[in-house]
Amino acid sequence: MIIIMERNATKVQKLRVIDLLKDNGFEVRCNEGDVHTVIDALGDKTSLTPGRLAALEGVKEVKVIREPFRLASRDRKEEDTVIEFHNGVKIGGDNKPVFMVGPCSVEDDYNGLLKVAKAAKEMGCEFLRGGAFKPRTSPYDFQGYGEKALQFLRKAADATGLLTVSEIMDASDLDMMCKYVDVLQIGARNVQNFKLLHAVGKCNKPVILKRGLSSTIREFLLAAEHILYYGNQNVILCERGIRSFDSAFTRNVMDIASIPVIKKYSHLPIIVDPSHGTGQRYLIEPMAKAGLVVGADGVMIEVHHDPEYALSDGKQSLSIPMFKDIMKRLNSFNNRLHYEKTCLSANVK
Ligand code: PEP
Ligand code: MN
């Protein structure tokens, strides 16, 4: 349950609610907002009914959270979460969807990465993505260049005015990674690595949490809940496709419907990754558009300066000319869609 106190509720009234909850075995978290105090109560509702709480002095409203993902739920927070970066870029809410592009792995070739970063900036993208620690299915595949890759990523992003995204695989890398990245990514294979979720939950860096290879939507939101529970509210979800029975033509099945479903049940922003979602270059443009149509707050696309020689995911990576060509159309699509969603709907209201 969530208990929202009146704006002029006294300290005594708040303590009365908290004590009653604790006496009935609830775990209590008190959030002092600018206007209202919101008390989160986790426990067995049969021992203390919402009606009894609502009758207490100073209580404005009692909400029962129906979903197990309490903090991620729209029942708890109606308005969309918006994540703002130091350069003014925003993700979520009514903001125009952002683009995160770059190679699957940052390789030992700074100039190659810089070419991608320059193309990303030229095409209006906001983020440069690139893996330094790669969770590979085979131990014989390229595992990432580690900190050196992060140094390249930061340098190329600073040279072009972009923000950085890179995947964290191990909690012990957290402090080091936070020096280089603006957004931490938790990959599909670590979506239920709870210790890692808790570690990023204890810092304040924005986190992209990718949907697991076989996560249900509920499991996905509960994974996000672990991060929120430990304090970090800057969580961005990412639909990147799930494993199904037909992999003949696509690497994964991109669950487009998960985006509006998640928007209905959660206030967290969600982006779409058609590169991993489909594994096919020719599907990146249509599936990015599909994601934007159903409300994605951003798009992640793999781009490599020389895909044929990429050390990971070359087959699905766009070359720079392909990327520029597709981005021209994605930008105008994104602009039109955003105009319709915001300006036109504001006129109607
Ligand atoms: C990636 O972004 O390069 C990646 C490994 O993604 P995922 O975890 O979705 O497979
Ligand atoms: Mn990849």
Primary descriptors:
349 residues, TIM Barrel, binds manganese (II) ion, alpha/beta, 2 domains, Alpha-Beta Plaits, four-stranded antiparallel β-sheet
Provide an overview of this structure.
By secondary structure, this protein is α/β, with parallel strands linked by helices. The chain has 2 domains: 2-63, Alpha-Beta Plaits (2-Layer Sandwich), CATH 3.30.70.1140; 83-348, TIM Barrel. The protein is built from 11 helices and 14 strands. The protein has helices at 11-23, 50-54, 110-122, 147-160, 174-180, 194-201, 217-229, 258-265, 274-278, 284-293, 320-348, and strands at residues 2-5, 27-32, 37-42, 59-63, 83-84, 90-91, 98-102, 127-129, 163-167, 183-186, 207-210, 235-239, 270-272, 298-302. An 8-stranded parallel β-sheet has the order 13-12-11-10-9-8-7-14. A 4-stranded antiparallel β-sheet has the order 2-3-1-4. Helix 6 (194-201) crosses helix 7 (217-229). It is elongated and about 65 Å long. The structure holds phosphoenolpyruvate and manganese (II) ion (MN).
